[in-house]
C-alpha cells in the first residue's frame, strides 16, 4: 500500500472523518467504498488514479480510522456529510463518483440530489435499490443461519448504514430522477459457487446491474471477466481503463451542455 496518499482526520459537523486528497485538476473523483470498507481498499488503483484528476477517498463513520457514527446513517445523512467534507477540504465540483458495492447507493442518491455538481458515476459492482429489496429472498437456509449467528454474537450498530438500508432505498425512490450524465457500470464476470449465491440470485443481480446502466441514456456496462465482487483488487487495470474513458466522456458531455 506504499502508493496510497497520506491520510488525515478532520471534524465535519462534529463527526471525525479520515480522508485523503491527492492528484490535481478536474474532475474531482470521489471514491465511495462498500459497507465497512476503509480507504485502503482502493490501494491497487494508485498512483495511476491520481493522473485522472483530483482524488478524494474517505472512511465513512464507524469505518477505518473515522469515529463511530453519532446518528443513524441514512443515505441523506451520508451524502450531506460527504458534501460538507468536500467543501471543508477544498475539493471542488464537478464530482465524478465511484461507488463500490453499498457505496453505489450513496452515489445514486448524491447524483439525484446534486445533479449540477455531479458529472458522472462509475458503479463498481454496485448495490442497486432492488438488490436491497429483493436479494435476501434468495438466501439459502445455511446463509440465513450464519447471518443469524453473526447478529447474535456481533449485534449490528443501529446507527450503521446497513441497519438503515431500507430508509436509504426509500430516499432514492423519493428523490428526483437520475440525471442524464455519463454512467459506467463495472460488473464482475465470475460466477459464484452455488453455496454462496444461487443461480436465481445471480440472474437477479445481473438484471439489477443492467438496470443501473439504464439510469442514464449515457449509460454503459463493462464486464470484468476475471473478477467477482472486487474488480478494483483483482483487475485494477480494467477499472482504471473504464474510469479514464468515463473521465473523457464527462468532458465531452460538459462541452455539449
From TrEMBL:
It comes from Telluria aromaticivorans. This is Alpha/beta hydrolase. One of its GO terms (biological process) is acylglycerol catabolic process. The lineage of its organism: Bacteria, Pseudomonadati, Pseudomonadota, Betaproteobacteria, Burkholderiales. Keywords: Hydrolase. GO terms for cellular component: membrane. The keyword Hydrolase applies. Residues 29-239 form the AB hydrolase-1 domain. Gene3D superfamilies: alpha/beta hydrolase. GO terms for molecular function: monoacylglycerol lipase activity. The keyword Transferase does not apply.
Amino acid at each position: 500500500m506504499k502508493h496510497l496518499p497520506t491520510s488525515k482526520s478532520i471534524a465535519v459537523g462534529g463527526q471525525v472523518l479520515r480522508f485523503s486528497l491527492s492528484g490535481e485538476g478536474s474532475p474531482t473523483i470521489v471514491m465511495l467504498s462498500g459497507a465497512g470498507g476503509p480507504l485502503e481498499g482502493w490501494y491497487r488503483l494508485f498512483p495511476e488514479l491520481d493522473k485522472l484528476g483530483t482524488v478524494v477517498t474517505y472512511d465513512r463513520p464507524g469505518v477505518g480510522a473515522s469515529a463511530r457514527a453519532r446518528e443513524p446513517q441514512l443515505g441523506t445523512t451520508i451524502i450531506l456529510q460527504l458534501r460538507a467534507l468536500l467543501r471543508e477540504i477544498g475539493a471542488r465540483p464537478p464530482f465524478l463518483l465511484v461507488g463500490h458495492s453499498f457505496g453505489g447507493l450513496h452515489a445514486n442518491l448524491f447524483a439525484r440530489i446534486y445533479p449540477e455538481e455531479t458529472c458522472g458515476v462509475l458503479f463498481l459492482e454496485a448495490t442497486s435499490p432492488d438488490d436491497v429489496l429483493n436479494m435476501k429472498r434468495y438466501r439459502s437456509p445455511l446463509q440465513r443461519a450464519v447471518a443469524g449467528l453473526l447478529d447474535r454474537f456481533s449485534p449490528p450498530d443501529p446507527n450503521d448504514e446497513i441497519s438503515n438500508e431500507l430508509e436509504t432505498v426509500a430516499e432514492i425512490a423519493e428523490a428526483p430522477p437520475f440525471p442524464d450524465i455519463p454512467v459506467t457500470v463495472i460488473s464482475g464476470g465470475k460466477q459464484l459457487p452455488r453455496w454462496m449465491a444461487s443461480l436465481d440470485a445471480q440472474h437477479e443481480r445481473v438484471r439489477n446491474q443492467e438496470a443501473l446502466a439504464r439510469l442514464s441514456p449515457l449509460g454503459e456496462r463493462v464486464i470484468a471477466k476475471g473478477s467477482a465482487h472486487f474488480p478494483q483488487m483483482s483487475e485494477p487495470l480494467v477499472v482504471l481503463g473504464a474510469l479514464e474513458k468515463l473521465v473523457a466522456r464527462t468532458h465531452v458531455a460538459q462541452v455539449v451542455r
